[in-house]
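Ops channel
N.P.: pipeline sanity check, posting one input/output pair.
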């Protein structure tokens, strides 16, 4: 899940000029065979919203490095970031976080908006009106609704701009109901 430390490591989560690799010390991961791995930053090959860890690794622990600083300055920075997030992102909505990675030289949300996807719906899933790179569960969205809506967004962005959006959210499993719901406004 995007809000967990394992997800943050897997995708080198970042925002506001920093990424997990900036504070990463070491991690423990287990593979499907039950083998435990201890890894350092150099072993993970962090890149933009990615790492080079094998796909079957599940991160089970990590050590992060804090950076000493002035307590008041840190609190002010945190308050500023919280305010900025609240002003620009659907923080009160049920989302998986930012949905697509920014392509080189572009912002995913701008491409999604340019393709006319703001407010687009599929079943209980909706492209946020506040920030187009967030898919919202409006209350009864299924995983198939969210995935189908994301794929429709990708299709429309490709048709409008020629850009292939890459999922930032890691999708796992198989949809229980493969019957897609209609896309609407």
């Amino acid at each position: 899940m995007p809000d967990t430390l394992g997800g943050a490591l897997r995708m080198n989560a970042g925002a506001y000029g920093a990424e997990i690799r900036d504070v990463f010390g070491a991690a423990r991961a287990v593979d499907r065979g039950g083998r435990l791995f201890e890894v350092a930053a150099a072993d993970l090959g962090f890149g933009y919203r990615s790492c080079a860890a094998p796909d079957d690794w599940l991160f089970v622990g990590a050590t992060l490095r804090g950076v000493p600083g002035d307590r008041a300055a840190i609190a002010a920075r945190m308050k500023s970031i919280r305010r900025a997030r609240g002003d620009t992102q659907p923080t009160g909505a049920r989302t998986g976080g930012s949905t697509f990675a920014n392509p080189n030289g572009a912002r995913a949300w701008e491409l999604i908006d340019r393709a006319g996807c703001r407010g687009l719906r599929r079943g209980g899933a909706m492209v946020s009106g506040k920030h187009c790179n967030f898919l919202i569960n409006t209350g009864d969205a299924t995983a198939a609704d969210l995935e189908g809506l994301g794929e429709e967004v990708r299709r429309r962005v490709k048709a409008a701009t020629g850009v292939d959006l890459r999922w930032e959210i890691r999708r796992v499993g198989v949809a229980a109901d493969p019957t897609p719901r209609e896309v609407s406004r």
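N.P.: looks fine end to end. Residues 5-64 form a domain with the Uridine Diphospho-n-acetylenolpyruvylglucosamine Reductase; domain 3 fold (CATH 3.30.465.10).
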